[in-house]
């Protein structure tokens, strides 16, 4: 998918969220190790900033992850986990991960302070229970000697406990403006050698809620019809499938439709 193919590879290559990328680059350059909390709505660039941060801090190996059954993405320098996938096993899973990270930690290195630690990336930290959030806070304190760089990602900051937020530097990633989305669409179109007219780019941007949806829409439109027609319908493929299924159900309202 283009949305993954054209994800920025470093903090220097962002065309939007440039201020946040610059601040993170300065943090890495200074060698500071601190928990970070990425706040913002879905699809606004939080994960892109996190992955670029990891790559700038640890090099190419930070992106060469492997998947295991939980599912967990991991590399030599980080472990990435969506807390909603863990369910009731959150406490033992996180505790086990941190114990394993302790073994993986290298000795302190004056030339590369951050590289001395393994990073734990937790997505949807705001969606777990208050009890689970308190356990995250306890882990931050209990394993602070070798887990100094925990990256939390959330869409609704008000649902995250103050005890966790106060232990993090907050990186606020705002919902993109239409101008921001258009800029990203032009960036992707240029890399894909597409002729993208201004009016059509604005139509996609206005119809999209975030960067991810806009890029998915651009790719779907290209697959459906290229060169683009300024008046062609803008919809990503799964939306077309849902519309088709809904029409079939309305046309033939019987139990057989449940098995399609």
UniProtKB/TrEMBL annotation:
InterPro entries hit by this protein: DNA_Rep/Repair_Clamp_Loader (IPR050238), P-loop_NTPase (IPR027417)
SUPFAM superfamilies in the cross-refs? P-loop containing nucleoside triphosphate hydrolases (SSF52540)
Q: Name one Pfam family in it.
A: RCF1-5-like_lid
Please list the coiled coil stretches.
Answer: none
Q: Which PANTHER family match?
A: OS10G0574500 PROTEIN, REPLICATION FACTOR C / DNA POLYMERASE III GAMMA-TAU SUBUNIT
Query: Could you identify this protein by its name?
Result: ATPase AAA-type core domain-containing protein
Q: Which organism is it from?
A: Selaginella moellendorffii
């Amino acid at each position: 998918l283009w949305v993954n193919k054209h994800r920025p590879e470093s903090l220097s290559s962002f065309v939007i969220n440039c201020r946040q990328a610059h601040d993170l680059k300065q943090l890495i350059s200074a060698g500071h190790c601190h928990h970070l909390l990425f706040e913002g709505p879905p699809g606004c660039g939080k994960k892109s900033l996190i992955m670029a941060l990891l790559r700038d801090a640890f090099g190419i190996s930070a992106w060469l992850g492997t998947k295991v059954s939980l599912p967990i993405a991991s590399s030599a320098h980080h472990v990435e986990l969506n807390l909603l996938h863990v369910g009731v096993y959150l406490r033992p899973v996180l505790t086990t991960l941190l114990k394993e990270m302790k073994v993986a930690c290298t000795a302190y290195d004056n030339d590369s302070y951050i590289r001395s630690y393994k990073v734990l990336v937790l997505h949807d930290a705001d969606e777990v229970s208050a009890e689970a959030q308190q356990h995250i806070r306890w882990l931050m304190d209990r394993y602070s000697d070798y887990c100094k760089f925990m990256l939390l990602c959330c869409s609704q900051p008000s649902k995250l406990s103050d005890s966790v937020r106060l232990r993090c530097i907050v990186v606020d990633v705002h919902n993109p403006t239409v101008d921001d989305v258009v800029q990203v669409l032009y960036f992707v179109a240029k890399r894909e050698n597409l002729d993208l007219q201004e009016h059509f780019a604005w139509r996609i941007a206005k119809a999209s809620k975030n960067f991810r949806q806009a890029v998915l829409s651009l790719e779907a439109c290209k697959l459906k019809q290229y060169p683009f027609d300024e008046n062609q319908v803008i919809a990503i493929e799964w939306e077309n499938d849902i519309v088709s299924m809904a029409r079939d159900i309305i046309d033939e309202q019987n139990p057989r439709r449940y098995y399609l």
